[in-house]
């Protein structure tokens, strides 16, 4: 300030809120101050970043303006609030060490794909990080998967055990360096190392030799376990039917499609149809697996995605994945490192589990703090739709339209579980926990929630949960009640509705069709084909599908022919030829169950209706994962569309959608030899049209203009598109999930949105 006359200088204190820690924000502020000739300081505190800036008034104004306008790529500035202070006449600008104290709301950021600068170093033989698999900087690299506590500083990450060499330390200490305070900063001298080992642990190679040998093994058709960012993957070359079939056999992953890793967008384009939205998702720093339509000419093993027209593709998101994908030069299967439905392995102690599957293991010595699966997304109606929101997105927060008066935890549902923490107007949906059907996944829920509570320093007082008494997530909520939290039950489909409204920043009311697999209703039956009028705080069930029995309960999910049997028995309809091979005794037993209701809950589930019709058409009598028959039925639909079948609706006080005449028409088409493609197209059109008509009636009655579509069945793109189009043609505004999946991955967020609104309303 020596060249200034004191009194003409202006000093401000600016508070920067949002995701501004661990993203290179302070060095950015330092460089900005340097450029504009500003004196003062910047520091990280419990809320975010605090800056004091002094200089000529125009320079200070420009400085404050650019704090948000020019923020670095991984930062997400939500607010800059500046207040004037008396000028002090100080000179120079410095980065002051972190201040600790009070509650932390400064968010930890998600893991981010390798940036262009780091990639250039990776490929430069003259660079000291040439082919170093853990290259990162403040603009990219691991975050959530290595963080163990806050503030986000190296000792609180799984990099704590690696002492930086002099060169790395100099980068780390230099405010003008791209690696200034890059907590995972590392190089081949001081950082984590890879090694290739045999089953049993015998070392084959280390360093770059390990990467080279891994690629040679892959090209040789072997199955490799590769330690990644959030867990282990299993990899093999995707163009070898022999390798893929062997992986499928060993993994016991029956029909589920495998995801693929390719080196770049050009390689992805060889395999799938990519529109601009798909491409944007693929190259985004979140790097989800993107589902896209397979090209007929793609030379890939048939058993990668049997019966499904889409492939899941991802681009490399760590330097290690870049090296392996580029060196291999062929598409690779990169699927989660687990057997069947277990959670993916992420600790080295768990490697035993993968011994029966992998021929060799590419390991490294940087521990993974939290198991984080790859995210999955697709493009629907011109925008992205998350099908699994995990690595790359977590722990970013979503807004809550109605603030919670007390900190909340949502325990989620049983399937595709993710929990959700909330405080004030922010909610933090967790990484994907999985299907909580055993002790191991229940333990992941417990550990995950404890980790989130530490990380975000949010101590929940209320735990929102599903009404289903047998869900392990409900049991977990009860455990928390014993530890002093207040239980708050939220109906399953209300949570679907609320999650969809809330992610769009809305509180409702709206009309909604929630079409789902199964969810616990308030009348003791299983719901899943529901028409609601409601908002965050309350809902009314204004309509539903005609119910049917689910013979054998859960078994009807895995054997869709049972649902077909249930409907056909109820209707006394003739059997289509698809069921000719089912043993008479078995059929009779299931038919009897559906009549007596013995071991057969009543359900209005739309998912089970799709299963039944798919089975009648002979698509699949038994499935290896929920919804498989319906997914393949959708895939078969004639793209030219089809005329709807009859679908009577009873619009008394309760709107009841009756699919019996539709099923009769489907049976007639089957009898007449109409192709399944046509039947599928007609059936989808029917459900879409009936749903839209019912919602229009509900909207007129309630004088509302917004319709919500959600629930697991709306992962069906064709159904979603047809229904949304019909609603928009009728003049309604349509809200569908985007940021969280329509499946039960959105339930926990919905639970906290509902609980917050209800608690706020008293
Ligand atoms: Zn980088
Ligand atoms: Zn180093
Ligand atoms: Zn559901």
List keywords for this structure.
seven-stranded mixed sheet, 22% strand, binds zinc ion, alpha/beta, 21 helices, 762 residues
Question: How do the strands and helices of this protein lay out in sequence?
Answer:
Elements: E1 10-19, H1 25-36, E2 39-44, E3 49-55, H2 57-69, E4 76-85, E5 93-96, H3 116-122, H4 166-173, E6 194-198, E7 203-206, H5 207-219, E8 224-227, E9 232-237, H6 241-251, E10 259-261, H7 265-271, H8 276-283, E11 289-293, E12 310-314, H9 319-328, E13 332-336, E14 360-364, E15 376-380, E16 383-388, E17 398-410, E18 420-429, H10 439-456, E19 462-466, H11 472-482, E20 486-490, H12 492-503, E21 510-520, E22 526-534, E23 539-545, E24 548-549, H13 555-558, H14 560-571, H15 584-596, E25 602-603, H16 606-616, H17 628-636, E26 649-651, E27 655-657, H18 660-671, H19 676-702, E28 706-710, H20 717-729, E29 733-735, H21 747-760
Parallel strand pairs: 2-5, 8-14, 10-12, 11-15, 17-19, 19-20, 21-28, 23-27, 28-29
Antiparallel strand pairs: 1-3, 1-4, 2-3, 6-7, 6-14, 8-9, 9-13, 10-13, 11-12, 15-16, 17-18, 21-22, 22-23, 24-25, 26-27
Bound molecules: zinc ion (ZN) (3 copies).
Task: Write up what this structure looks like.
By secondary structure, the chain is an alpha/beta fold. The chain is built from 21 helices and 29 strands. The protein has an 11-stranded mixed beta sheet with strand order 7-6-14-8-9-13-10-12-11-15-16, sandwiched between helices. Strands 26-27-23-22-21-28-29 form a 7-stranded mixed beta sheet, with helices on both faces. Helix 5 (207-219) crosses helix 9. The longest helix is centred in the last third of the chain and has 27 residues, at 676-702. The relative contact order is 0.09. Mean pLDDT is 93; it is low at 1-6 and 101-105. Bound molecules: zinc ion (3 copies). The site of one zinc ion has 8 residues, from helix 4. One zinc ion is lined by residues 115, 117-118, 136-137, 139-140.
């Amino acid at each position: 300030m020596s060249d200034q006359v004191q009194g003409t200088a202006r000093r401000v204190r600016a508070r920067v809120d949002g995701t501004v820690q661990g993203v290179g924000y302070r060095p950015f502020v330092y460089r900005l101050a340097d450029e504009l000739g500003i004196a003062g300081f910047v520091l990280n505190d419990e809320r975010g970043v605090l800056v004091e800036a002094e200089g000529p008034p125009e320079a200070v104004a420009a400085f404050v303006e650019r704090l948000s306008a020019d923020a670095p790529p991984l930062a997400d500035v939500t607010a800059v609030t500046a207040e004037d202070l008396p000028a002090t006449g100080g000179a120079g600008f410095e980065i002051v060490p972190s201040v600790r104290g009070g509650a932390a709301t400064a968010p930890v950021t998600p893991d981010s794909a390798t940036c262009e600068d780091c990639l250039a170093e990776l490929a430069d033989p003259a660079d000291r990080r040439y082919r170093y698999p853990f290259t990162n900087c403040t603009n990219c690299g691991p975050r959530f998967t290595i963080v163990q506590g806050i503030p986000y500083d190296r000792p609180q990450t799984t990099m704590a055990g690696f002492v930086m060499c002099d060169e790395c330390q100099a980068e780390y200490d230099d405010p003008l360096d791209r690696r200034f305070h890059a907590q995972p900063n590392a190089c081949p001298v001081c950082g984590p190392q890879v090694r290739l080992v045999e089953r049993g642990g015998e070392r084959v190679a280390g360093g770059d030799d390990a990467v080279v040998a891994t690629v040679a093994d892959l090209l040789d058709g072997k199955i490799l376990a590769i330690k990644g960012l959030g867990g282990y993957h299993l990899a093999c070359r995707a163009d070898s039917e022999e390798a893929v079939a062997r992986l499928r056999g060993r993994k016991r992953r029956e029909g589920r499609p495998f995801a693929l890793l390719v080196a770049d967008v050009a390689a992805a384009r060889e395999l799938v149809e990519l529109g601009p939205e798909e491409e944007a998702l693929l190259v985004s720093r979140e790097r989800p697996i993107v589902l896209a339509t397979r090209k007929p000419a793609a030379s890939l093993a048939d058993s990668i995605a049997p019966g499904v027209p889409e492939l899941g593709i991802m681009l490399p998101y760590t330097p290690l994945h870049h090296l392996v994908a580029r060196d291999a030069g062929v598409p690779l299967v990169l699927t989660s490192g687990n057997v069947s439905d277990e959670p993916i392995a992420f600790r080295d102690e768990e490697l035993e589990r993968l011994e029966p599957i992998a021929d060799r293991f590419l390991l490294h010595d940087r521990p993974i703090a939290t198991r984080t699966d790859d995210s999955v997304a697709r493009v629907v109606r011109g925008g992205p739709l998350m099908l699994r929101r995990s690595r790359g997105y977590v722990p970013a927060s979503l807004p809550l339209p109605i603030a919670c008066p007390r900190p909340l935890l949502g325990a989620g549902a049983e399937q595709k579980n993710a929990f959700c923490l909330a405080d004030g107007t922010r909610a933090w949906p967790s990484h994907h926990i999985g299907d909580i059907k055993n002790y191991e996944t229940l333990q992941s829920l417990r550990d995950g929630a404890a980790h989130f509570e530490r990380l975000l320093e949010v101590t929940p007082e209320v735990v929102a949960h599903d009404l289903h008494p047998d869900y392990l997530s409900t049991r977990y909520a009860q455990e928390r009640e014993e530890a002093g939290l207040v239980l708050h039950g939220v109906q399953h489909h209300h949570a679907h509705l609320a999650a969809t409204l809330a992610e769009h920043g809305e509180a409702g009311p709206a009309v909604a069709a929630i079409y789902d697999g199964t969810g616990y209703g308030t009348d003791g039956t299983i719901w899943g084909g529901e028409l609601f009028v409601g908002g965050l705080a309350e809902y009314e069930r204004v309509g539903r599908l005609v119910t049917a029995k689910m013979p054998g309960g859960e078994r009807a999910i895995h054997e869709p022919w049972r649902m077909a049997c249930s409907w056909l028995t109820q209707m006394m309809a003739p059997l289509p030829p698809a069921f000719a091979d089912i043993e008479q005794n078995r059929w009779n037993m299931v038919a009897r169950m559906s009549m007596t209701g013995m071991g057969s809950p009543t359900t209005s589930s739309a998912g089970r209706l799709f299963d039944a019709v798919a089975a009648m058409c002979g698509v699949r009598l038994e499935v290896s994962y929920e919804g498989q028959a319906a997914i393949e039925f959708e895939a078969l639909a004639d793209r030219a569309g089809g005329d709807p079948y009859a679908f009577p609706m009873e619009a008394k006080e309760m709107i009841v959608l009756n699919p019996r005449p539709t099923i009769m028409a489907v049976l007639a088409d089957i009898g007449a030899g109409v192709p399944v493609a046509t039947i599928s197209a007609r059936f989808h059109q029917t459900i879409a049209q009936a749903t839209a008509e019912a919602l229009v009636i509900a909207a007129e009655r309630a004088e509302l203009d917004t319709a919500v579509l959600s629930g697991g069945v709306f992962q069906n793109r064709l159904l979603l598109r047809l229904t949304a189009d019909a609603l928009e043609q009728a003049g309604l505004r349509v809200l569908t999930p985007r940021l969280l999946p329509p499946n039960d991955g959105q339930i926990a967020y919905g639970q906290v949105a509902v609980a917050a609104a209800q608690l706020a309303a008293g």
